[in-house]
Amino acid sequence: MKRTRIADIFNPALIGTDVCVKGWVRTRRGNKHVQFVALNDGSTIKNIQIVFDMSAFTDEQLKPITTGASICVTGLLVESMGKGQTAEIQAKTLEIYGTADTETYPLQKKGHTLEFLREKAHLRMRTNTFGAIFRIRSILAYAIHNFFNQKGFYYLHTPLITESDCEGAGAMFQVTTLNLANLPKDENGAVDYAGDFFGKPTALTVSGQLEGELGATALGQIYTFGPTFRAENSNTPRHLAEFWMIEPEMAFYDITDNMDLAEEFIKYCIRYALDHAADDIQFLNDMYDKELINRLKAVLEQDFVRLSYTEGVDILLKSGKKFEYPVYWGADLQSEHERYLVEEHFKRPVILTDYPKEIKAFYMKQNEDGKTVRAMDVLFPQIGEIIGGSEREENYDKLLTRIQELNIPMKDMWWYLDTRRFGTVPHSGFGLGFERLILFVTGMTNIRDVIPFPRTPNNAEF
Ligand code: 4AD
Ligand code: MG
């Protein structure tokens, strides 16, 4: 008999028909006359209740049905009398696929902490919470492709192995096939990369932007959506060493067009999740954060505040609030500052623009004042920075000067500079941290809980 996914089973048209379901047992309870099994197959947060009439089954047959065991059941789908469920299955046949030992199965009990489950990342997707989170993650990925496809953007695949450090932070994971125990050296004692796989030092990319700009100045508007890698040793609830980023890049967009797109994009994603992952979001709202749905809806209804970094710093200075990190013009804002502006001062998302050039990357368009660049960071409640972007410096001489000021090796940059030598155009782009978006949509507070297998300092298991 053909299997029906549990997501599809709560369909009034199926009532009164025989169905087949397969999945993992959540619980079994009952007495010697009747036994109830809650089954989940991952397709939805909902379990289907299976009723075993013990005049037709033996205790021996049902004994392997413990939490975590995998089974296949056929039976009659009937309307349910039980509260909170619309249908249940009166079992006719039972097949056990695999047992789960009650002594050793780590998810035997309910109510494990998120910290405990992080240690069990290989199994945690079987819990309600992580099932919900990773279904939402998948739906959001789809929403992102949908959004850009509808807007006529092309999906560009940028390399993961690269020789350029886009963000200039120097926090790259080196990629090499050299024998680390016996490194070839040149006459000065430095590592000789001539014999390395690419004949030069390479690393995992921190961003697809630079190659994205090549795409945008050819295809008009592109986006990337891929993993990025940063070897910064920041053990915070908002940083991963491997995270996914969406980076649209648009020819002929100025900073205002860029901000408009960012706001429309992020609202589209949140609305899409509310429409297509309602059960999962409701579950997380009820279990973890009663304000979650209100917060998501509030963001959809509000225009984001737009103001300059300078104005933002003024507000922080006048706030009279004691921050852990000092605020002054020129300081890189910390998430406590960002969250003060968003959560306490404006009470809605904020786009900060025109940051001091010293704290931003080399490629950002320089303002007339000589001090600031046309950067934009989108700041969100609970999160802080969720998007970072800018209008790009399209003037060859200005860009070259900045590259030299920052001592970025020119020989690595010739191809990027060519976009400004041949048919340069005003253009802009930004990067959305995918996991930070998922944090916001799920209400989770630790970024390790919204990526299936988090990579953080000292953690690369599974
Ligand atoms: O602000 P960032 O570093 O900007 C860039 O990489 C630009 N090249 C983007 C562009 O203009 N195309 O990173 C962009 C976003 C951040 O706003 C944040 O949401 C996320 O990526 N992000 C991280 N997420 C998780 N872990 C980390 N270590 C992250 N670093 C940045
Ligand atoms: Mg940033």
Describe the fold and architecture.
With 462 residues, this protein is of the alpha+beta class. It has three domains: 6-98, Nucleic acid-binding proteins (OB fold (Dihydrolipoamide Acetyltransferase, E2P)); 125-169 and 206-449, 2-Layer Sandwich (BirA Bifunctional Protein, domain 2), CATH 3.30.930.10; 176-203, no CATH class. The chain contains 13 helices and 16 strands. It has helices spanning 6-9, 59-62, 114-119, 128-150, 209-219, 255-276, 278-287, 292-301, 309-318, 335-346, 396-405, 414-421, 434-442, and strands at residues 18-30, 34-40, 48-53, 70-79, 87-98, 154-155, 161-162, 174-175, 202-204, 221-229, 242-251, 305-308, 350-356, 372-380, 384-391, 427-433. The strands form three sheets. The chain has an eight-stranded mixed β-sheet with strand order 6-10-11-16-15-14-13-12, with helices on both faces. α4 crosses α6 (255-276), α4 crosses α7 (278-287) and α4 (128-150) crosses α13 (434-442). The longest helix is centred in the first third of the chain and has 23 residues, at 128-150. The model has no long low-confidence stretch (mean pLDDT 96). Bound molecules: 4-amino-1,4-dioxobutan-2-aminium adenosine-5'-monophosphate and magnesium ion. 4-amino-1,4-dioxobutan-2-aminium adenosine-5'-monophosphate binds at residues 166-167, 207, 209, 230, 239-240, 243, 245, 247, 385-389, 429-431, 433, 435-436.
